[in-house]
Amino acid sequence: MDMMKMLGNVKAIQAKLKDAQDQLGDITAEGEAGGGMVKAVANGKKQLLKVQIDKDIAKPEDVEMLEDLVVAAVNRALESAEEKSKAYIQQQTEGLLNIPGMDLGSLMNG
User: Fold this and answer.
1) Which residues, 6+ apart, have CB-to-CB distance to 97 below 8 Å?
2) Is residue 101 part of a domain?
3) What's the CA gap between 16 and 8, in Å, rounded?
4) Inside any domain, residue 47
5) Which of 18-32, 38-52, 54-68, 96-110 is predicted least confidently?
6) Which residues is 30 bridged to in the sheet?
7) N or C: which end of the chain has fewer CB within 10 A?
8) 34's torsion region: left (phi>0), alpha (psi -120 to 50) or beta?
9) Residue 12 falls within a domain, yes or no?
10) Cα–Cα distance between 33 and 53 in angstroms, integer?
C-alpha cells in the first residue's frame, strides 16, 4: 500500500471520527429508578441533561432514598448513553478502520 495514500486515509478517518464525536451531543439516553419515580436523561457526551422526580416521593423524610434513586437513575442514563455512543461511532466508522496496526483509540485521541 502506498504510504501517502495510507496517511491520507488516516486523516480521513480522523476527520470522520471527529465529526461523529461532535454529533454525540445529539444522542440522548434515559435511565430510571424506583419503578420510574426518578428519571434522568444524559447525552452521548456523558452530560446530564435532565432529572425528573415524581412528586409523590419528594417528601422531607424520604430525602436519603430520593438521593439514592437520583444516583441510580443518572448512572443508568450514563451507561445507556455510553452504549449508544459506542454504537453510533462504530456505525459511522464501519469499514474505515481496516488498516493493519491501526488503533481506534489512538485515532480518537489524536
Assistant:
1) 13, 104, 107
2) no
3) 12
4) yes
5) 96-110
6) 41
7) N
8) left
9) no
10) 10
Q: Retrieve residue 47's grid coordinates.
A: 452530560
Q: What is the mean pLDDT of the chain?
A: 83
Give the mean model confidence (pLDDT) for residues 82-90. 90
How remote is the C-alpha of 1 from its chain's centroid? 35
* pLDDT, average across residues 49-71: 90
Domain that holds residue 85: 22-95
CA 44 distance to own-chain centroid: 3
Within-domain flag for 17: no
Residue whose C-alpha cell is 437513575: 73
Listed as own residue / partner, the contacts of 15-24 with beta carbons closer than 8 Å and 24 or more positions apart are 16/92, 16/93, 16/96, 17/89, 17/92, 17/93, 17/104, 17/107, 17/108, 19/92, 20/88, 20/89, 20/92, 20/93, 21/89, 21/108, 23/88, 23/92, 24/85, 24/88, 24/89
